[in-house]
Design goal:
The chain has 301 residues and is of the alpha/beta class. 26% of the residues lie in helices and 26% in strands. Strand 14, helix 7 and strand 15 form a beta-alpha-beta unit. Helix 2 crosses helix 3 and helix 9 packs across helix 10. The protein is globular, with a radius of gyration of 21 Å. The mean pLDDT is 96.
Amino acid sequence: MSVRELVVLGTASQVPTRHRNHNGYLLRWDGEGILFDPGEGTQRQMLRAGVAAHDLNRICVTHFHGDHCLGLAGVIQRINLDRVPHEVTAHYPGSGQRFFDRLRYATAYRETVGVTEVPVAAAGTLAVTGSYTLEARELSHPVDSYGYRLVEPDGRRMLPDRLAAHGLRGPDVGRLQREGRLGDVTLDDVSEVRRGQRFAFVMDTRLCDGVYALAEGCDLLVIESTFLDEDADLAVEHGHLTAGQAAAVARDAGVRHLVLTHFSQRYTDPGAFERQARAAGYTGELTVAYDLLRVPVPKRR
């Protein structure tokens, strides 16, 4: 059975707290695992969450601030130690190549697995597979930063009443799906478009066009909300979002499930983020993330 879920490994910003590890997020998408922003301590959080190195197919780093990438060294060495049998691809801002190189080869170890480096040079498509297209968009932060968006291809939903009206059943339905036409009946006559699912990952950024492009029509949006609204000036100064800003983006983009994360250690009441998100007018499903949480991708409409 295919599984599509977000495994939250860490939710702190800048420094960890007693209850929040540095960033780390694993998206399970059918048979693949995409690890986003492995901060310090990610390898141990993977152990606690039941995530193995063998589960990783891609690593996506939004930018090279330590809370989003210092766990890379340990994760890459663990991939090699466990002799992961498949290719692992790493995406990251190309302008930070020197940082990636230092992290990949931070210490001596035996390299047994090929990690394919595909740095991001500009907004656009990074990879196309049978089950998704991976895209990147520029964000607004003091260093080069990119958000990531995963889009499943649209499919078709067969409509039983129309099939019955045309007298189609059993093997004929499969043949029609494969060939697109059966006699005078076309696939369009008995089915409708089934919209593919969409996921986006937006970390450290001010409001910008990239944020809205990534969030548009998402079933699941993971987005930073480092500050509460009363500290909006600090958010702009340091290149971050507030809870209200993140929720307004989700509201305007038609997001079905909003996951807020990357919280400043200055706040002790997680409920304040939810209250401000609701006050901004977001009415969809809302999660204020905590470490080791699992969030399923919403079922198709």
